[in-house]
Amino acid sequence: METAKTPRVGAAVRRRRRALDLTLAEVGRRSGLSSPFLSQIENDRARPSMVSLQRIADALGTTAVQLLAASDETRTVDVVRAGDDSGLDREGRVRPVVRGRHQLHALEFVGRHEADREFRHRYDELMYVADGAVEVEADGRLHRLERGDSLLLSGGVRHRWRTTDPGSRVLVVAIGEHLELLGT
């Protein structure tokens, strides 16, 4: 029987912070989070929300998806069951559907998602609306997506998105930002 582990993002945060030669205080200042809270995260005594994890990722010049991927062991075959909530953020709104450090990343967003930040990825990204509705602003145009619709964003396209239906389920699939490390 498979057992799922809760992702432990602390070691990935610590490795990234140390690689950048930053102190907890510097990451705290950049992220707006306290040093004691960051210490608890790094020591896996606290589990950050997806919002806090993204603030940490921004402070470390990476993404929350990359930190999550770096925190989990890579598996050659991995089944993520529909009821597996071990990877959910504290609000229960974001669930990884691909675990580990792979070329492909996929997250399922459930419920409300606000367009409070802009994204721009090096590689392509696909968004699929499983339920509900979404508005995506990309390259200065607004795209309305409903159940069953998908949107491909080529690498380098600035975009932001939000759900317009509280019952939305959105799958976001992207090529990992770490690929340049694999090819060298």
Q: What proportion of the residues form beta strands (DSSP E)?
A: 15-25%
**What number of domains?**
2
Provide the succession of SSEs.
Answer: HHHHHEEEEEEEEH
Helical proportion, percent range: 25-40%
Organism: Streptomyces gulbargensis
Keywords: DNA-binding
Pfam family, one: Cupin_2
Protein name: XRE family transcriptional regulator
Explain this structure.
The protein has 184 residues and is α+β, with helices and mostly antiparallel strands. The protein folds into 2 domains: 10-71, 434 Repressor (Amino-terminal Domain), CATH 1.10.260.40; 103-182, Jelly Rolls (Sandwich), CATH 2.60.120.10. The chain has 6 helices and 8 strands; from the N terminus they run αααααββββββββα. The protein has helices spanning 10-19, 24-31, 35-42, 50-59, 64-71, 179-182; strands spanning 94-96, 104-110, 125-131, 133-138, 141-146, 150-153, 159-163, 169-175. The strands form 2 sheets. It has a 5-stranded antiparallel sheet with strand order 1-2-8-3-6. Strands 5-4-7 form a 3-stranded antiparallel sheet, with no helix packed on it. A hairpin with a 7-residue loop joins β1 and β2 (104-110). α2 crosses α3 (35-42). The longest helix is centred in the N-terminal third of the chain and has 10 residues, at 10-19. The termini are far apart. Residues 1-6 and 179-184 have low confidence and may be disordered. Keywords: DNA-binding. It comes from Streptomyces gulbargensis. Pfam families: Cupin_2, HTH_3. Residues 13-67 form the HTH cro/C1-type domain. This is XRE family transcriptional regulator.
